[in-house]
Records
---
Amino acid sequence: MQNAYLIHGTSTKDDDWFPWLEEACAPQINLDRISLPNPFAPQAAEWNDAVDQQVPATDGLILVAHSLGCITALRFVARHQIHDVRLLLVGAFDKGLPTYPELDSFMIPVPDYRQITPKVSKATVITAKNDPIAPYRDSINVAHQLGAKLIVQPTGGHFLTSDGFSAFPLALKELQRLSK
């Protein structure tokens, strides 16, 4: 059994498709949905500390991240001497969002991809053209920076329960692919 870790965004580990994915990928993959402090008023330093406490910095690490969790995952990879990292990033962005200026300070500094890409062996970025939160072109940029597989859906919004995503078979398929 492989271990993977899910880093949520401005929600909780029990929201959206996260519990479904944990159940759906078992027993082949043990998905640990980590908890982040103050998810609705996030502070980058607090989130970085929480991830460091809950995710072992080991080679072969699999990280699943959604929304603001994506930049948190990228920063984790940048800060640790690890190799063969596999990333599944959903609704990813690495710069401020026009509709959420209150997150601008969280976005600084921009991830240093020169520190990240040599450590990543496989990555997938999933986005939707109709994402009202994170412009899909931002996800395309993250995928390009990582050399990741890019999946652009015509619809899906920000892949929240309110967008119809209490289950997410595409994320399961990509997680299984990344784990091989």
---
Amino acid sequence: MVDPARARKLAKRIGTIVATAIDHEIKDPRLAFVTITDTKVTNDLHDATVYYTVMGEKVDSAPDVEAAAAGLEKAKGVLRSKVGAGTGVRFTPTLTFVADTVPDTARHMEELLARAKAADDEVAKARENAQPAGDADPYKEPRVASDEDEASPDVREVD
């Protein structure tokens, strides 16, 4: 087991090396729109998981995640060699590429928050001119006992 700080530093270094290699050295057109988002390394420093996202060619076009995954799988050996040369660790970690779902989850959460805000706005709009259904003060005040209440009609005085 290794120091967690060392594992984090190595993960960050691996992510930087992989991103730079994809951007400048690997000429696969399937990797043109791949962005490395995060990297995790196991405690024994033998396995690294690299998270990535794929952008569409245009703003409104869907990304080709399958082609990017195939391109990363094909370039895995070259990228591992680059990582080994760039990190200088005794054992070069194996690389596993995983599509990052955080941006999609964040987008979904933003949509849910927008829907909740719209529902809150509708409730606030309906509440603007609303009148209470009953009295303005729905809580009744307690009755004050008077002299007439003490002599009830059912009780008769006997002479």
